[in-house]
Amino acid sequence: MIISASRRTDIPAFFGDWFINRIKEGFAMYRNPMRPTQVFAVSLHPKDVDAIVFWTKNPKNFLDKLKYLDEYIYYFQFTLTPYAQDLEPGIPNKDEVIETFIKLSDMIGKKRVIWRYDPIIITDKMPLDYHKEKFEELSEKLSPYTQKCIISYVDFYSKAEDELNKINAKRLEQDDLYNLFSAVGSIGKKYNLSVETCAEDVPVEYLGLKKAHCVDGELINELRKEKGFQDKEYRKDNNQRKACGCVQSIDLGIFNTCKHFCVYCYANFSRNSINKNAQKYDVSSPLLCSALDLDKDEVRIREKDGSKKLEISHILEQDKNQERTISQLDFCVQQINFVEKNTNSSLEKKVLDHIKRIKQRTLL
Description:
- The structure is a single chain.
- By secondary structure, the protein is of the alpha/beta class.
- The chain has two domains: 2-278, pyruvate-formate lyase- activating enzyme, CATH 3.80.30; 312-363, no CATH class.
- Helix content is 35%, strand content 17%.
- It has eleven helices and twelve strands.
- The protein has helices at residues 11-14, 16-25, 94-108, 128-142, 158-166, 174-190, 217-226, 271-278, 313-316, 326-341, 346-363; strands spanning 2-5, 27-32, 35-43, 51-56, 74-79, 113-120, 148-153, 194-197, 210-211, 250-251, 298-303, 306-309.
- It has an eight-stranded parallel sheet. Strands 2-3-11-12 form a four-stranded mixed sheet.
- Helix 4 (128-142) links the parallel strand 6 (113-120) and strand 7 (148-153).
- Helix 4 runs parallel beside helix 6 and helix 10 (326-341) packs antiparallel against helix 11.
- The protein is globular, with a radius of gyration of 23 Å.
- Mean pLDDT is 90; it is low at 318-344.
- Pfam families: DUF1848 (PF08902).
């Protein structure tokens, strides 16, 4: 399986320690964003992970953690735009971000660092000529350190629409999009960059551009071959937008946790929500900015083609009005140990061990 880390938040920027703890423990958990009480556990053992796709705007603090990923195949989707802190308040000075981009490329190779000039926003203050100038400036600096640039025009998601309207962001017609993509593509070609469009409905092939596959099965197979693995067939991710070219992946992130506070972001609802979720961050929890609730959450084990429910009801059935004693705790631990001995799944054992620790804390 492919792990996405993450479309919903910037894990390398803000939660790198959490992610590496998940790598060390060999599993992670994540909530179904459409049904938050449904929790999935997924193995992060190298033999179970085909690749990891990191999404980031500033992985500076993650670079020293790459040493823990030697057994994994991974690459970065690295967003670097020309916008100032009025649009991207949490992003440091762009010269510093460019320096991080170059350092990352030097560490892992330019094939594995994909530049995203995304989203493109047209306003009266940032017309097409502004983007042509800025894209060329960035292309000159970044092209020696990447092979590909992915672009898209800003989407007016409901969560971002008010903020985009405040800056008078323009909704472009198809002809305007063609002019934009053609201009950017021509500059990219000048710098030997493959320019690809992300989840755009307009046909761009005749402009010499490609449709992007951000979670890219072809690239993953290419990287797997370099490590001696055979090709795998990856299916299109039908949970994404129709125009999206990504293959299936499992995303470990959670919405309303990214502290870049970009005004165009679809993954954040409000600063208040972000700050509340940030208070729940526990570097040791299998869940990002969350904790397992044994009374409410349904735990499922992710498998190759779906998932199965982890049955723990017999462990949790206790009279809540009864005085909790050490003997009850011992009984609970024995029940969990019984389940562990009767399962062949390493992932299930790890999840049950985590439940054991939660139960011990509640009974003491």
